[in-house]
Amino acid sequence: MILEVTDLRLAFGGVRAVDGLTFSVDEGEIVSIIGPNGAGKTSAFNCVSGFYQPTGGAVRLAGEYVTGLRPSAVAARGLARTFQNLRLFGELSVLDNVRAGTHLWLRQSAFDAVLHTPRYRRSERESTDEAHTWLDFVGLRGDRAGLVRHLPYGEQRRVEIARALARRPKLLLLDEPAAGLNHGEKAELLTLIRRIRELGMAIALIEHDMGLVMEVSERVVVLNFGKEIADGPPEEVRQAPAVIEAYLGQAADDDEVHAARAGFEEEGAHHA
Ligand SMILES: Nc1ncnc2c1ncn2[C@@H]1O[C@H](COP(=O)(O)OP(=O)(O)O)[C@@H](O)[C@H]1O
Ligand SMILES: [Mg+2]
């Protein structure tokens, strides 16, 4: 198991944002976490990634307990994430935003940095090369020297994914990556998520776009009021009465599933 979350709890005053959540993500698996707004999805991610201290429960990453560790410590053990509301460095270039991800594994001492030793210059070059590789990977072909805040929204989302990938994580957490994307961009995201899995990374995905969730997930965990109300393969979860009642009844949209599939097949045809 890459991720094992056991009886996770988080309370804000009287609000139980996460209320005894247990789920896991296996190697090479894509697990989606869905549920109505306010169900506790982002709060659960924040606990897993160290941004919030859970009030109870345990989080294990690749077999190691990471419960309550700081975000940087959890990241160093193989977790990278994106945010529901983008958190890029707006005043840095596209390239530098992704280079920031590489500093997790790049070995640089302050001594080398201050003196600009050959070793430092070599590692800076390595960081730049890696950043370009991930920008290629997410399909960002435009100017990489310009400020990231000048990019269209959909491209900023891809920069954030590239930065997370540049950390070379074992597990990637994506919080609503399709939010604000148009139809074509969603189809591209679907392809991208599958290509990330092919690299051997496991993915936990919070997403409202049911077409995307149904297409990419091995398993779907459904939250409502901080509690898990279903966990299983997408076809099964989709038919669970508790889920339909809480959520899917209003959100499931077959047209979107077909559109996402059509977009994906079109993409595949281009590559063939
Ligand atoms: N920083 C916070 N302070 C107080 N309450 C919060 C905070 N973050 C989330 N909550 C509350 O926790 C619950 C779950 O929110 P959230 O995890 O953002 O849900 P989701 O991502 O599923 O929409 C909501 O009731 C929300 O208002
Ligand atoms: Mg959220």
From TrEMBL:
Keyword annotations for this protein, in alphabetical order, are: ATP-binding, Nucleotide-binding, Transport
User: Can the keyword ATP-binding be found in this entry's annotation?
Assistant: yes
**Residue ranges the record marks as coiled coil:** none
Q: What Gene Ontology terms describe what this protein does at the molecular function level?
A: ATP binding; ATP hydrolysis activity; L-isoleucine transmembrane transporter activity; L-phenylalanine transmembrane transporter activity; L-valine transmembrane transporter activity
Q: Name one Pfam family in it.
A: ABC_tran
| Highest taxon of source | Bacteria
Q: Does the keyword Transport feature in the UniProt annotation? A: yes
GO (cellular component) term, any one: plasma membrane
* GO-annotated biological processes: D-alanine transmembrane transport; L-alanine transport; L-isoleucine import across plasma membrane; L-valine import across plasma membrane
Q: Which Gene3D superfamilies does this UniProt record tie to the protein?
A: P-loop containing nucleotide triphosphate hydrolases
Give residue ranges for domain ABC transporter: 3-250
The record's annotation in InterPro entries points to: AAA+_ATPase, ABC_AA/LPS_Transport, ABC_transporter-like_ATP-bd, BCA_ABC_TP_C, P-loop_NTPase
Kindly provide the name given to this protein in its UniProt entry.
ABC transporter ATP-binding protein
Which species expresses this protein natively?
Streptomyces lunaelactis
Lineage, top ranks: Bacteria, Bacillati, Actinomycetota, Actinomycetes, Kitasatosporales
